[in-house]
Amino acid sequence: GAIEAVATNAGPPVTDDRNMKIAITTLAANAFAYAAGTHRLATFTVPAGETAISINNIAGTAGDMTTLSTWYEAVPTPGTVTLGADNDLNSARDWAVVAVSIRPAGSAGQALRQTETVTASITGGASITLPAWSPVANDLILVAVALRDETRPVSVSGNGLTFVEIANLDNAQNQTGVNLFRAMGASPTSGSITVTLGAGNTLPVVV
Fold first, then answer.
1. Which end of the chain has fewer beta carbons closer than 10 Å to its terminal beta carbon, N or C?
2. In the predicted model, what is the mean pLDDT of residues 162-185?
């Protein structure tokens, strides 16, 4: 599939809340809306009608704890949908979330194929390497990165593909951030994806 649109929500500007959600518009029939959110110490619950990919992955402790959740919703009819909901976090926190709408490949109604989901985390350092895997030719690969120090530049490489950053979002309180990358290719190679942070990173990162 191909990405149709990107949306971002930097979260509450002053007072923390429990409502990590984002609206995005799909353009094609039988599209998918995908979201990646970072939500500090709070626990995220996927709303009814939406599907978890990888939820509540955590790195770090106390005030430096960083959490990443990814999920999606199938959208049969073009239009605007909201991913997440009021009170989907178990406590009020600052948060940030990005979303993309994905046009399906091939015939209408094609199911989303989650070839593999891989995650990893660090509590400080210049790079993080995901477990080795084998991507499928011409599949859209999305890599979400949640980082406690949102000022650090981020890049992604691996699998013989070029990863392009499509979102770089700091939360409204400048406490954390989420970056999103995409890649696709006819001849990907098996192996690991590596996420590289700006030099001197000492805080948690979740991928």
1. N
2. 95
